[in-house]
Amino acid sequence: MTQQTAPDHGTQSRYRHHGCRCEVCVDANRAYFRARSAAIKAGTWQPYVDAEPVRQHILHLQEEGFSISRIARLSGGSDWDIQRFIRAGKGRGRKRNTTEALAARILAVKPGEMTPAMVNAIGSNRRIEALCALGWPVSHTAAHMGWSHKNLHRIRQQLVVRAESAQAVSAAYDELQTKRPARYGVGKSASNRARNMAKARNWAPPKYWDRFPGAIDDPHFTPEYGMTKPQRLAEEAVWLVTVAGVPRTDAAARLGLTFAEVDDALAFAAAA
Fold it and tell me: Is residue 9 within 8 Å of residue 15, measured between CB atoms?
């Protein structure tokens, strides 16, 4: 499974939250505590600042087409870090204050900066599929975005898309995943068809992607949503043989499969 993308080396966050003990991260952690101790002695230690300016900045970035995941990646935080500024979580209210360091990193993200011309389409496709799992037909998602049905379907057939298009899909995903389709003109039969199609194709809903921050845009992450145990083992067998280069007999032994089962999994993957 793909884990949350870690902040850059040389940050106290990577040392504290991601367990990195390389030299630059250790130095960053020491520097943080030296500065903290000096500020406490001087009576100037103020670890928290008002979160409202940060919240307003995040809302502005969303209006410019930035998704929660993208803001998190650019600021070196997690999806959860960003979400807490704009909506309450389970048992917790919206953030009212935050650390000065996190506030500075988020406020440093500016519209138009570090935006490639083209990006992998997998994140857009997964978001469209996740909305289907909630009962949002592709046509209604497209209409919400001000796009035609054909334009959104075209993304489903591409390996890469324009960054602006990916941001538009992400913004729609962030908004629609919290809304009930029936309240926005989606008929019951259309909504059920979308859910049934998603279920038949094992398309993961937003709750699944929330468990793996950053994974929705990662082409190397293979979702296991809706898979049976034999299907998961088959996926592992294909990865071991075709990616890791493990001999078929060794892959079978590791996974408790027969040689024939590994061969069947490889044949199925090749035909797909």
Answer: no
Strand-pairing partners, residue 98, are: 49
| Stated pTM of the model | 0.52
Q: Mapping DSSP to helix (H, G, I), strand (E, B) and coil, where does residue 50 land?
A: strand
- Provide the percentage of residues in the chain whose pLDDT is more than 70: 89
Side chain identity at residue 198, one-letter code? A
CB half-sphere exposure, 112, CA atoms < 13 A: 0
Specify whether the CB–CB gap between 199 and 226 falls below 8 A: yes
Q: What is the pLDDT of residues 57-103, one digit of tens each?
A: 998 887 776 778 778 878 877 788 888 888 765 556 678 888 888 88
β-bridge pairing 118-120 and 97-99:
unpaired
Per 3-state DSSP, what percentage of the chain is helix, strand, and coil (rounded to 5)?
A: 60, 5, 35
Q: Which amino acid is at 163?
A: A
DSSP H helical ranges for 93-162: 100-107, 122-133, 138-145, 149-155
| Three-state SS at 201 | coil
CB 251 within 8 A of CB 265: no
Tens of pLDDT, residues 12-55: 667 776 677 888 888 877 887 787 778 777 777 667 889 999 99
Write down the pLDDT at residue 93: 67
* For the chain, counts of helices (H) and of strands (E): 15, 4
The residue-averaged pLDDT of 187-204 equals 93
